[in-house]
Amino acid sequence: MVEEIGKTAEGDLIINVGPQHPATHGVLHLVITLNGETIKKVEPHLGYIHRSIEKMCESLTYRQFIYSTSRMDYLSAHINNHACALTVEKGLGVEIPARAQVIRVLMDELTRIASHELWWGAMAMDLGAFTPFFHAFRERESINDIMEETCGARLTMNYMVPGGVMVDLHPNFQNRVKSFLKLYKQKIHEYDELVTGNIIFQNRMKGVGILSKEAAISYGVTGPAARGSGVSCDIRKLYPYEIYNTLDFEEVLETAGDSYARYLVRLREMNESIKIIEQLIDNIPEGDFQAKTKAVLKLPKGEFYQRVETARGELGVYIVSEGGTTPYRIKFRSPGFSNLSCLDHITRGGKIGDLIASMGTLDLVIPDIDR
Amino acid sequence: MFSLESLTTLVQDWLNKTFPPTIALLFEFVIVGVLAIALFAALGLVLVIMERKVAAWIQIRLGPNRVGPKGMFQSAADTVKLIMKEGLTPDGADKFLFNLAPFIVMMVAMLVLAPIGFAKGFHIWDINIGVLYVSAISSVSVIGILMAGWASNNKYSLLGAMRSGAQMVSYELSVGLSVLSIIVLTGSLNINDIVLSQQTGWWIFKAHIPAIISFVIFIIAVTAETNRAPFDLSEAESELTAGFHTEYSGMKFALFFLAEYINIFIVCAIGATLFLGGWMPFHIGNWESFNHIMDYIPSFLWFFGKTFFLIFLIMWFRWTFPRLRVDQLLNLEWKYLLPISMVNLILMTLIAIKGWHF
Description:
A: three-stranded antiparallel beta sheet, B: mainly alpha, globular
C-alpha cells in the first residue's frame, strides 16, 4: 500500500519541508533526510521567491533602485534603503545634514526593534506557543504607527533617499516615540515571564543548534546569530557609519553559541536600540532633512561598497558605475544567505523540533535570501 | 438534594406501562442514543467556541464576534462550512482505512461517555467497572490515529501518528496510576460509588498531599493523552503541519476535531469525578447547615462547573506553553511522572490502609 518512495539507500526517510510550510516563514524549501526523528542532513533549496532585484536595479536610476530594496529584507526595509543611500552618497561625495543623520539612525533602530519583535513572536510560534506572537505585535504595531505617520507606509517605507530622508519628521513623531518607549518598558518584562523563563522553552533552546565561533566565522554568519557565538561583528561598532561612533551603546555578545544564546542576544539588542533612541529622541538637531542634490544623479566611474548592520546581520551594497545614471552592476551581500548556510551544520543529529527551533533563531527572511 | 432520578424513572415507568417490555427497552435505547449524540454535538460546538474565546482572551484580542451575539454561533457556521466541503481522499491513500479512521476515533469518544455520571442518578450506563471501562476504551483511540497516519500515505502524517502512538501509550500509565490511587481509597470502580464516597468532602481535600500530587499528574498526563499543547506533538503545526490529519478535509477532519474536544471533555469529567467529587456538591465534614445550603445548587451544575473548570485549565496550558520535543516528552513520562506516581500510589495505599484520610 505505502510505496517505498522518497527513501535513501540506507532506508532513511527524505522529507520536503516547504516551500509551503508554516515553519519556514516563506517559501524556503528544505530537503531533510531523517532517520526516525533524527536529522541526518538538511539541504536548503532556494529560488522560489527570486525576483532578480539585482538585475532590475541595473535598469533603474540611482534614485529609483532604492525602492526595490525595501522588498528584499522587508522587516529591515529602512536599513536596506539606508545602505543603498549611503553607497550612492559615497559615490556622489555629498555631505548629509546632521538632522537627516539622526533621523536615519532613529528609524534604523526603530526598525531593528520592530524586526526583533516579530522574530520573537514567530520563534515562539515555531516552538508551539501561539500567544507571544500577539504580545509581540502589540508593541510592533505602535512602531508601525510611528512609521506610517512619518513615512506614509508601514512595511516598505522607502523613506531614505540619496542625500537624506524623503520628507521631514511628522510633528507628532517625538511624542509617539516617547509613548512607545513607555509602553515598551512597561511590557518588556512580560517577554521574560511568558517565554524566557519558561522551563519548557529553556529545555528546547539550551544546548541545541550549537554554532561554534570558528564555524560561525567560516560560514560567514553575521548579526545576532554570530554574536550568540561570541563573534564580534557589529558593523555599527566596527565600521561606524552616520553618527553611530558618537552614540553610547554596547555590542551584545554571548559565548554559548546555542539557540538560547542567539535568543538572548536579540532580546538584549532590543534594549540597546532603546538606549540609542533615548539618547537621540530629545536631541534631534534643527536644519535640513535632505542635502541639495541634482535632479538626475550620476555616479563617477568606479566601484562603491558600503555595509550596514541590519536586524539580521551585515548587509553589503556593491555598486559598479560606468559613469551613467544607472548602475552598471549591483550586488547585495545579504545576511540571510550566509546565515542559512550554517543550518545543516547546526541541526545535524538533532530532532525535527530542534531544526524548527534553530531555524527560528537564525531569523531568516526568505526574500532577503533569494532577492 | 435536587435529582434527575425522578425524571428518568418517570420516563421509564411510562414506557413500561404503555409498551411491552422489549419495545420499551428499544425506545430507551433510542432515547439514550439520541441524547448522547445531541450532547456530543452540543459539547463540540460549545467547546470550540469556548476554546476560541479563551484563546482570544489570553491573546489580547476579541475572537469571533460576527455570527450571532458576541460570535456565539461561529462554531455552528463553521460546522455548516465543514459539512459543505468536499471530503477528499488522496490518491495514494488506503481508501478503506483512511475513511474508517475518523469514525473509529469518533466512536471511541462516544463510547467513553457511557459510564459518566452527569448528575445525581443520571448515567447512560451505571456499570460496576466504570473507571476501568473508561481507561480501557479510551486507549483504543490511538488505533484510529495510527490508522489515519498510516493510511494517509503522507510522511508528515506517519511521523505524527508515530509520535502520537508513543505518547498515548506511555502517558496511559500515569493516568492509570493516578486513577488507581483514588480507587485504592474508594475500593470501587463504579463511578457512582466513587462520587458517593465524596459525600463528606472531595478526595483532593480529604486525602492529603498524595491526592494533590496524583491530581497534578492526572492533569499533565491527560493533557498529553488528548494530544493537547504543550504535548501536541502529533499535530505539531509548526513541525508537521497538522500531523496525522494533514490529509483530511471537510467532515472527516471535523470528526477528528470533534473527537479531540469530546476527549478533553471526557478526561476532564473523569478528573472532576475522581478528584473533585463529580456531581457531589461541596461538602465539609459534619457542617450540616453548610452542606444543606450547597445541596440547593443542582447536581448537574456542580458536575459541569467542575468539568469546565478543568477544561479551562487545559486550554490555558495550550495557549501559554511552548511545545516539548519528542524525547523530552518521553523523558518526562518515564523518568519523572511514572516513578513519582508509583511512589505516590504506595503512599496512598498506606493512607487507605491506615485510614489516615478524612
